[in-house]
Each structure stands twice: as C-alpha cells, then as structure tokens.
Amino acid sequence: MGAPIASKPGPLSLNTVTVKEKWGLAECIEGCARHGIPGISPWRDVLQAMGVEKAARAIRDAGLSVSGLCRGGMFPAADAAGRAAAIEDNRRAIAEAHALGAACLVMVCGGLPPGSKDLDGARAMVRDGLHAIMEEARAAGVTIALEPLHPMTCADRSVLSTLGQALDLCDELGAGSGVALDVYHVWWDPALRAGVERAGKRIAAFHVCDWLVPTVDTVFDRGLPGEGVIDIPGIRAMVEAQGYRGHTEVEILSRRWWAADPDEVLEDIKRRHASAC
C-alpha cells in the first residue's frame, strides 16, 4: 500500500456475530474477559435477548469497551409506514448504543425495497432517514457510523456502496456522523486511499476479516485475518495515519467458523490479530 506499517494493531474487539451460532451475548462477554480481549461489539439481536441494562452492567463489570453497536439503518421501505417504522427502530438503536457507552452505532443502510428497481429512490430514503435521526443521536452523544458495503450487496443490504458515498452523506449530516471501515467491503476500491484521507478524524470504527479466493458465499464466507487476499496491515496503516487509535474489530460472517468451537476461534483471532492485522 506504500504507507508505513504501525508496530502493532490497536486493541482487539470481538464482534459478536463471529461466534453467533454457539454463544449468546453473556457467553461473548465472559469469553472476551477470559481470553483477554478488551473490546466487544454486540449485534442488537443478542443485546435485546440478554436485555440492554443487564448487558451494559455485565460489560462494565467485565471491564470491556464497546467498540460499536451493530446495527442501525435499513431505511428503505415500500411505503411511508415502513419508512417511519425504520426511523423509530433507529431511535431505539441510538438509545441502546447510549446505554452501552458504544463508540458508535454502525449503520447498514438498507437495499432496494421488495419489488423495486428505483436505486435513486432507495438512496433518497437512506438520506432522509439519516437526517431524521441525527439530532437525537447528537443529543445522546452517539456517533452515527455509516458503513459502505461491497457493491454485491446493493440490492438487498446497502445502497451505500463506496466510502466516497458515505463521506458525501457525512458532509451533509455534519457533527456526530462518521464512517465504519470494514476491509471486506472497501479493499477493492481504487479510490480507497483518497477516501481514507478525506475521512480523516471521521473514521469511527475499523473492522477486519479476509476475502477468500474462491469465495463460495458472498455474505457468509469471510475468512479470518490472514486467510485471504486483503492487505489488512496496509489498510490499517492508512487508517492510523489519519489518527485512528480505536479498536481493531474482528467481524467474521462465516458458516465454516460458526461451526467451530468459539474458544478456539477466539484463540485463533488473538494470534491473527498479532500477526495478520
């Protein structure tokens, strides 16, 4: 990548989706504490299953930092009622992130409504939804971190496909907005370096995993860092050159790794965090 590599990655954080098939949030909290992993990033389904207050207390008692809450977004809908419901759900997500003391609320913004081919319209719904929640997010002190997703997910998961698009929205939204960079989704972008430099202090989260060759499932076949073709240390150096000193969050969506023993996965993540991140 051409940039100097930092001596070691930032503190490790476990995104709970990495072990979602075998551990709930309570087990993830205990596992992070037992393995010496200082950060955690819950998904809202496991957070709600445990209970927000109970989870927040357990995370504090374990001495863990919350690198992010996954996820808000999913704004596009087929009708006004669906769009209003999405905005209300995002307001609940802001309250949950505040209760956890999360560094940010990660936004997976949503794809095309069922049956729609109106890409511009879906992007307008995302823009409108974000504007609708920003005042509440700023009042709660919750950073809204827009996560651009790989273009392969544009139809069903996110019409926000590039870092440049995310930063254009941040320019509109102003204070309290930022970006979540997941190497899986941005590594391919020829404008990545320029985008990272433009993002500057607005980088709110840094997610790592790897792109396997071949990839047999475009959503659920991520690799652990070092298993694939992404230059994770090179991207990290670019991010840290902008002053990012937050967690290196491992987020693995993989049926192969979900079938493994979670304790073994965490041990492997720790080794790879030291050598491949």
Throw out a few tags for this protein.
single chain; 277 residues; alpha/beta; nine-stranded parallel beta sheet; 11 helices; 9 strands; globular
| Distance, first to last CA | 14 Å
Cα-based radius of gyration, to the nearest Å: 18 Å
Rough outline: globular
Strand percent estimate: 5-15%
Counting helices, strands and paired strands, the structural category is: alpha/beta
Number of helices: 11
Average pLDDT number = 96
Strand order of the largest sheet: 3-2-1-9-8-7-6-5-4
Please write the string of helix (H) and strand (E) elements. EHEHHEEHEHEHEHHEHEHH
Q: Approximately how much helix is present in the residues?
A: 40-55%
Please mark out the parts with pLDDT under 50 across 5 or more consecutive residues, or reply none.
none
Largest sheet: 9 strands, parallel
Please count the beta strands (DSSP E, at least 2 residues each): 9
